[in-house]
From TrEMBL:
Keywords: Cell membrane, Coiled coil, Membrane, Transmembrane, Transmembrane helix, Transport
Sequence similarity: Belongs to the binding-protein-dependent transport system permease family. CysTW subfamily.
Organism of origin: Methylomonas albis
Protein name: Phosphate transport system permease protein PstA
Positions of transmembrane segments: 12-36, 299-328, 348-372, 392-414, 435-457, 516-538
Membrane topology summary: Multi-pass membrane protein
PROSITE patterns membership: ABC_TM1
Coiled-coil region(s): 184-237
Length: 551
């Protein structure tokens, strides 16, 4: 009976179902781990004040957020030089985010449970997120305007919130002027310089051109002076206010308010307030630029760069993959050479991605980009325009890397279309090209979309080739802006995958970077899922549209 059961194939069906279920459990578990570790970073944790006294010093106060707890075996603790006062089996240690890096030298500190004499969560403890030196934890004593105290005690908190809102508005206005107005003027001045250099190379730089260019330059400089005056006025206004705060050791410190991003008192927040704060923190993370070597702020440029690169890659790889597949399936003579080409295409799908990066750097950047610069941008020499890694070359490199996936998927779709469909179209008087364009390709479009989905899934997470052909740690400007020609394919860009690598392995502040690695990984997965869901919805619509023809 067992032999008949095996012959029926049921065991293999159950084994396959079990393997698929196990894989799904592993994937869901991995995503849950990433989500818990990453999304927990945005929750406003309580600020704890510890009364701490180790064996070598007096009792002191430690203020910060509890991050993690570890149990160190007694033997290992003694080997590390720690003394166990209670002779227990484990040494309990707590990792506390103390912030105040400009005072303490680091953001995190390990403390031992056996030396903690007490802990509390006073309502007056506050967290100040700064533009430099990370978070500050302590108490607010007073608010100053032009060096004079304007509020103290509880009134200081209300005054600080009011003044901070004003300063943040001024800071946003300054950033807008610098990024848009000043950036546009600098861009036009650089174009003017290149035009002048082009005229000089053509021996057309005469007095009339000099006067015209001088007038344009003077007009830009006047605009620049006006904007600089506005920026100077706003900057002076924002620097009028400062905070007087006390750190854990009761040392008073003056913090300029224009260097503050946000102030909160988590210990006084209700659950609803913390939920609102959590949403605001996450929104800030996905909408702002990074700070502090990418360990603070947001990751919007990386999200933007990833999505834009994948879209450009899809625009390039789809037509080339479809054309190659159509030729191999519909036009090429099926023989030895065609079989060799198919084997080569399949083998290209297994080539390590870093090899494509080296090829892209050597062929796209140095050969094609260098020749483009010599032919069309001689005035920019010796500075490269397209002869340096950038968005265009990164997209082309990934398009080349994912081309075999699109070719194979498209060929599979073309092979499933019945021969009678082609013959019926030809019998009605259509040419072969018309049959392909109006009948065969529309019916194969779901398979084409499947290939594109697989290409997007692979390309969006690639890092190794991008390190050679365009991605950078921090891009000063986005590839898409308001300056003509608006889409700047020559610019370098940020990428979520490289951002994860940089924060996780290149950051000097490991503990601060760890939750950001999980949060960025989760966002990368969500971006890939979003792009794939969009493509899947298109594929499903096409499949329903042409289902009748397939039947």
């Amino acid at each position: 009976m067992m032999k008949a059961w095996f012959k029926s194939g049921s065991p293999w069906i159950w084994m396959t179902a079990g393997a698929v279920s196990l894989n799904l459990i592993l994937v869901v578990g991995l995503l849950l781990l990433i989500a818990v570790r990453g999304l927990g970073h945005f929750w406003p944790a309580d600020i704890i004040e510890y009364r701490y006294q180790d064996r070598d010093g007096p009792e002191s106060s430690i203020v910060g957020e509890a991050v993690a707890t570890s149990l160190l075996p007694a033997a290992q603790a003694r080997a590390a030089g720690h003394e166990l006062l209670d002779n227990g089996e484990y040494l309990v240690q707590h990792l506390v985010k103390t912030g105040n890096r400009d005072i303490l030298g680091s953001d995190f500190r390990w403390i031992q449970q056996q030396y903690i004499h007490g802990q509390s969560t006073p309502d007056d403890l506050m967290m100040i997120e700064r533009r430099e030196w990370g978070n500050f934890y302590g108490r607010l004593l007073a608010v100053k305007e032009d060096g004079q105290v304007i509020a103290q005690g509880e009134q200081a908190w209300l005054a600080a919130q009011e003044k901070l809102a004003t300063v943040l508005d001024q800071h946003d206005e300054i950033d807008s002027l610098q990024d848009h107005e000043v950036g546009a003027i600098n861009y036009e001045l650089e174009r003017l310089r290149l035009k002048q250099r082009a005229l000089e190379l053509k021996n057309a730089w005469n007095d009339a051109a000099k006067q015209e260019f001088a007038a344009q330059k003077q007009a830009y400089e006047k605009q620049y002076q006006v904007i600089q005056q506005q920026i100077g006025k706003l900057s002076k206004e924002s620097k009028r206010y400062s905070l007087v705060v006390a750190e854990a050791g009761q040392k008073e410190i003056s913090l300029p308010l224009h260097r503050v991003v946000k102030m909160t008192r988590p210990n006084t927040m209700s659950v609803l307030d913390k939920c609102i704060e959590y949403i605001e923190n996450f929104a800030t993370f996905v909408s702002e630029e990074p700070r502090e070597a990418n360990t603070e702020g947001g990751i919007f440029p990386a999200i933007f760069g990833t999505v834009l690169m994948v879209m450009l890659m899809a625009v390039v790889v789809t037509p080339f993959g479809v054309i190659a597949a159509v030729y191999l399936r519909e036009y090429a003579k099926q023989g030895f050479i065609t079989r060799v080409i198919r084997i080569a295409v399949n083998n290209l799908a297994g080539v390590p991605s870093i090899v494509y990066g080296v090829f892209g750097l050597g062929f796209f950047v140095y050969i094609i980009g260098g020749n483009i610069d010599r032919l069309f941008f001689p005035e920019a020499a010796p500075a490269p325009v397209f002869g340096t890694p950038g968005l265009l070359w990164a997209s082309l490199t990934l398009a080349l890397m994912t081309l075999p996936v699109v070719i194979v998927a498209t060929e599979e779709g073309l092979s499933r279309i019945p021969k009678s469909i082609r013959e019926g179209s030809l019998a009605l008087g259509a040419t072969k090209a018309e049959t392909l364009w109006r009948t065969v390709l529309p019916m194969a479009s779901p398979a084409i979309m499947t290939g594109l989905i697989l290409a997007v899934a692979r390309a969006a997470g690639e890092v190794a080739p991008l390190m050679l052909v365009g991605v950078v740690k921090l891009a000063p400007t986005l590839p898409l802006d308001g300056n003509f020609p608006y889409l700047h394919l020559d610019r370098k860009f940020m990428h979520l995958g490289f951002h994860i690598y940089d924060v996780g392995f290149q950051s000097p502040n490991v503990e601060a970077a760890r939750p950001l690695v999980y949060a960025t990984s989760l966002l990368l997965v969500m971006v890939i899922i979003g792009l794939n869901m969009f493509a899947i919805s298109i594929r499903n619509n096409l499949r329903e549209k042409y289902r009748a023809l397939e039947n």
